[in-house]
Write a structure and sequence with these properties.
about 140 residues, mainly alpha, elongated
Length: about 140
């Protein structure tokens, strides 16, 4: 059975992190009644910048949110609830959690792949393999 936008939104808003309709509206730059329309099913679609902002706020994949296709969250996706929260285990000194959330999931995967390259051992030299060059795009 194919889920509706309303069902997917409710599932994502239940967290983690838990997100209220008012918080989602603020993240999308819209008024709360618009979010109510999504949740009630009166509005059947979410597109463009509202889709991207909502997916980012909810920590879900835009394709999943828009049409139920693909995974809800990408495997290995690091989700950070709010930039204002305390992150005692955040692994980066210069890259802040809110900056990470601004990246697309593709860029997050690319960064993760490059970090994992430091753990790959070159069979001939028995030394860590050099990290892959990060491409622009």
């Amino acid at each position: 059975m194919k889920s509706t936008l309303s069902e997917r939104l409710r599932e994502a808003m239940n967290g983690p992190p838990k997100v209220t309709g008012k918080e989602l509206a603020a993240a999308c730059g819209i008024k709360p009644p618009s979010v109510s329309g999504w949740l009630s099913g009166d509005t059947k679609t979410i597109e463009g910048k509202n889709l991207l902002a909502a997916a980012r706020k909810l920590g879900v994949e835009p394709d999943w949110l828009a049409n139920g296709k693909g995974p809800m969250r990408t495997t290995g996706h690091l989700h950070v609830a709010e930039p204002s929260a305390s992150y005692s285990n955040w692994p980066f000194k210069k890259l802040k959690p809110h900056q990470w959330l601004q990246l697309t999931s593709a860029h997050q995967r690319l960064i993760e792949e490059n970090a994992m390259a430091f753990f790959e051992i070159d069979a001939a030299s028995k030394q860590p393999a050099p990290a892959k060059k990060i491409a622009n795009g």
